[in-house]
């Protein structure tokens, strides 16, 4: 069993990824079964209504592990539990690590161009969908 700190986490909703602003997060590889990864993040209660619709639903997740400079890892899994903990909720995902098609960045860029994005909007959407952000 191996565990790592979660640095950032993005969930896919429709065709866009959005970031969960969490206070603490851990990801554990149990190295057992078809869905060996467990991701737990602590969020403010205000996220509960938005996330409940994902309970037991398949979802794409991008997670940066250990350092902000690492590339995000792509997981496919389910939101399996939401627990109230004082003014926070504990959100637990279970899933598997997916390897991305090496053509994914090009396919994504073509999709965004087809949707009419250009200039800085295109760059921002591209970064958001890759699960990266500008480093300042």
Features:
disordered C terminus; alpha+beta; 3 helices; 2 domains; 6-stranded antiparallel β-barrel; 136 residues; Pnp Oxidase, Chain A
Contiguous helical run count: 3
Regarding quaternary structure, how should these chains be classified? single chain
Order of helices and strands: EEEEHEEEHH
Count of individual domains: 2
> Rg, please?
15 Å
CATH architecture of the largest domain: Roll
Query: Uncertain segments of ≥5 residues (pLDDT<50)?
Result: 132-136
CATH fold title of the largest domain: Pnp Oxidase, Chain A
Give the overall silhouette: globular
Q: Could you give the distance between the termini? A: 34 Å
Strand order of the largest sheet: 1-3-4-7-6-5
User: Structural class of the helix and strand makeup?
Assistant: alpha+beta
CATH domain class of the largest domain: Mainly Beta
For the residues shown, what is the average pLDDT? 86
**Major sheet size, sense and barrel closure:** 6 strands, antiparallel, barrel
What's the helical proportion of residues?
Answer: 10-25%
Name of the CATH superfamily of the largest domain? Electron Transport, Fmn-binding Protein, Chain A
Sheet-strand content, in percent, reads over 45%
Number of strands: 7
Organism: Aliicoccus persicus
InterPro entries: YwpF (IPR025573)
Pfam family, one: YwpF
Protein name: YwpF-like family protein
Give your account of this protein's structure.
With 136 residues, the chain is α+β, with helices and mostly antiparallel strands. It has two domains: 2-99, Roll (Pnp Oxidase, Chain A), CATH 2.30.110; 101-136, no CATH class. The chain has three helices and seven strands. It has helices spanning 48-52, 104-114, 119-130, and strands at residues 2-13, 16-19, 22-29, 37-44, 58-65, 73-85, 88-98. The protein has a six-stranded antiparallel β-barrel. The longest helix has 12 residues, at 119-130. The protein is globular. Pfam families: YwpF. It comes from Aliicoccus persicus. This is YwpF-like family protein.
């Amino acid at each position: 069993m191996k565990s790592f700190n979660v640095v950032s986490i993005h969930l896919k909703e429709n065709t866009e990824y959005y970031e969960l602003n969490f206070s603490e997060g851990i990801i554990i590889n149990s190295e057992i079964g078809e869905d060996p990864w467990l991701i737990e993040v602590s969020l403010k209660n205000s996220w509960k209504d938005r996330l409940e619709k994902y309970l037991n639903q398949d979802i794409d997740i991008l997670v940066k592990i250990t350092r902000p400079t690492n590339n995000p890892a792509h997981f496919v899994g389910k939101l399996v539990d939401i627990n109230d903990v004082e003014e926070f909720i504990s959100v637990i995902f279970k899933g598997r690590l997916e390897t991305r098609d090496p053509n994914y960045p090009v396919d994504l860029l073509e999709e965004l161009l087809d949707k009419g994005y250009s200039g800085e909007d295109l760059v921002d959407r591209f970064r958001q969908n890759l699960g990266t952000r500008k480093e300042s």
